[in-house]
Amino acid sequence: FILQLHSNSDKGDGSVKYILTGEGAGTIFIIDDTTGDIHSTKSLDREQKTHYVLHAQAIDRRTNKPLEPESEFIIKVQDINDNAPKFTDGPYIVTVPEMSEMGTSVLQVTATDADDPTYGNSARVVYSILQGQPYFSVDPKTGVIRTALHNMDREAREHYSVVIQAKDMAGQVGGLSGSTTVNITLTDVNDNPPRFPQKHYQLYVPESAQVGSAVGKIKANDADTGSNADMKYTIINGDGSGVFSISTDKETREGILSLKKPLNYEKKKSYTLNIEGANTHLDFRFSHLGPFKDVTMLKVIVGDVDEPPLFTMPSYVMEVYENAKIGTPVGTVTAHDPDAANSLVRYFIDHNTEEDRYFTIDASTGTIKTAKIFDREETPWYNITVAASEIDNPGLVSHVPVGVRILDVNDNPPELARDYDVVVCENTKPGQVIQTITATDKDNSENGARFHFSLDEGLSLNPNFTLRNNEDNTASILTRRRRYSRTTQDIYYLPVLISDGGVPPLSSSSTLTIRVCACERDGRVRTCHAEAFLSSAGLSTGALIAILLCIVILLAIVVLFITLRRSKKEPLIISEEDVRENVVTYDDEGGGEEDTEAFDITALRNPSAAEELKYRRDVRPEVKPLSRHHPSSSLDSIDVQEFIKQRLAEADLDPSVPPYDSLQTYAYEGHRSEAGSISSLDSATTHSDQDYNYLGDWGPEFKKLAELYGEIEPERTT
């Protein structure tokens, strides 16, 4: 029961009816329409709905008319402690550095209570720790978790599970509670120095170990993790600090001992090393726990190994003169057994390349000799490999490279640097330099760097050219005449003697070919006699083929013409009964102008001399042709074209001609010109006295014409 509605109009006789509307009416709240009592049908939850708004009205049961206006009332739900506190974000995972001060804040947890915080203590929450003491504590009001001990060591214990409880009703008896778990992990700090497990170590290394190779490992332990355990190893002292080196493997944090220099058991059998391992990341808050480094001693014992022979030098360079006789000594290599046994050594050459076969070596002494005669200009350097092995143990072999330099001797005479094309102009002056020549020598600079040029002294003095030695390994060719003529002599030969500065000096003779050419005023070569002849007389292959092809075509035409002449003539008309048109080919040649039997061609040569039209003479007409009369005045003025048209009309209208085609040729040339002939056949044959010197100023296109007329003029004068 919640409440009762009552109207002043209600007399208790049941005539008043109560009606309830609004939130929850009929479902959550029901009303007795006679008494007005309101009851709830189910439990109410304040956390879901705090109040309900309802409307009540009294009406006449018989007429259903309202007796009073509608009234509104509110039902408020009063809170009770029916909700326990809850941690919405749990469980929690959190970290805190090890060795933290007591009271260091770790995490703040918060619990919520759905009850009404304004009514009583239903929503008043207090916090307590159920698990995790004595390491951690929690503030009852704020829920802040803090460390409860000094210097919590991660290396002793790393993980903690703390259970926090939240209880309402201010923690009183009867209050509701909820709990959550907080997992706390201690993070590492560098509070532990590195330590070697032992203070003394011993390592065996054979003397055959390669330089740069790893020969051993060593490690210092550090209880810390991550970067706090990073280590660096160094060799701080000891007699092996110059022979060995140490580096740090960042993955395994081990010290890798490597060899810096080769070991020799016969010289030193052991080394002592002091190795230090130190942290690279220090935390000065814990420096009082240090020092954060440790030192150990390592003794390295060198093991004896049978080694191959050792050469006295890592490589050899030897020299020998070219052209030396076979068997000439070049040099000697020396090797010895580094072991205490000091076995005898045998030498030999590895014949891996062709160059190795050019030398021999004495197996006992190591003396290298030549096996061929060398030419420095062909190969100036040879590389061979000499091997040495112990006689007692031939399997142990060592090698050494040997370079042999071939020394030069003066065995090559100098020669011209190239084939010179020397040209001299016809209008050159005496003493003019026409060419500068140089020489080369296959020998090196000591035997060929200095050249001397001269003319052959065994010949008579050359009247045309001379040579001047420039003292700089070049020479100049000079002219000795004022003028040269291509017509007189177009090529000259000049012997030149070249000697080098070697010991003994060598010399050679070369001949220069000098061509005489016509040049421009500025010295440019215009043409040379030999080139002009070749250019005028030479024919290309294409031109020769064209000429031969024309000759073949002409021969074919002649043969065809002769064949047609010898062929049998066909009759002009086959038979009298055959009235069809026939085209007959015949090749009779007329008798020329003197033949007057076939046609009278006087009219063809001159229409004004034409007589009265005649009948055809080759066919006898059966009927007379149409008569035509022309006055003589018209014959004098008739035109050739008109004359031809008349002849064509007669041929078409003449009924006496057979049905075959007739060909008539008209070749009237017209009257003689009054101007006379322009032919040069009747010209005078005497030469003109005209001066042709002006042709030389017309440019290079008229040079040849000017030369021709220039040569005719002196001949005519002579």
Summarize the topology:
Layout: E1 3-4, E2 16-22, E3 29-31, E4 37-40, E5 51-60, E6 71-76, E7 86-87, E8 92-97, E9 105-108, E10 111-112, E11 126-131, E12 136-138, E13 144-147, E14 159-167, E15 177-187, E16 200-206, E17 214-218, E18 231-237, E19 244-249, E20 254-259, E21 270-279, E22 293-303, E23 310-311, E24 316-321, E25 329-332, E26 335-336, E27 345-349, E28 359-361, E29 367-370, E30 381-390, E31 397-407, E32 415-416, E33 422-425, E34 433-440, H1 445-448, E35 451-455, E36 465-469, E37 474-479, E38 491-500, E39 507-519, E40 525-528, H2 529-537, H3 541-566, H4 602-605, H5 632-636, H6 640-653, H7 703-717
Parallel strand pairs: 8-15, 16-22, 24-31, 33-39
Antiparallel strand pairs: 1-4, 2-5, 3-4, 5-6, 7-10, 9-13, 11-14, 12-13, 14-15, 17-20, 18-21, 19-20, 21-22, 23-26, 25-29, 27-30, 28-29, 30-31, 32-34, 34-37, 35-38, 36-37, 38-39, 39-40
Biggest sheet details: 5 strands, mixed
Percentage of β-strand residues: 25-35%
| Morphology call | flat
For this structure, what is the CATH class of the domain at 415-527? Mainly Beta
The count of helical stretches stands at 7
CATH superfamily annotation of the domain at 415-527: Cadherins
Instruction: Assign the structural class, choosing from mainly alpha, mainly beta, alpha/beta, alpha+beta, or little secondary structure.
Output: mainly beta
- Sequence stretches where pLDDT stays below 50 over 5 or more residues: 530-538, 573-580, 609-620, 622-636, 680-687, 713-718
- CATH topology group of the domain at 415-527: Immunoglobulin-like
**DSSP summary, beta strand count:** 40
What distance separates the N and C termini?
Answer: 171 Å
Please estimate the helix content. 10-25%
Please give the radius of gyration in angstroms. 69 Å
CATH architecture of the domain at 415-527: Sandwich
Average residue pLDDT: 81
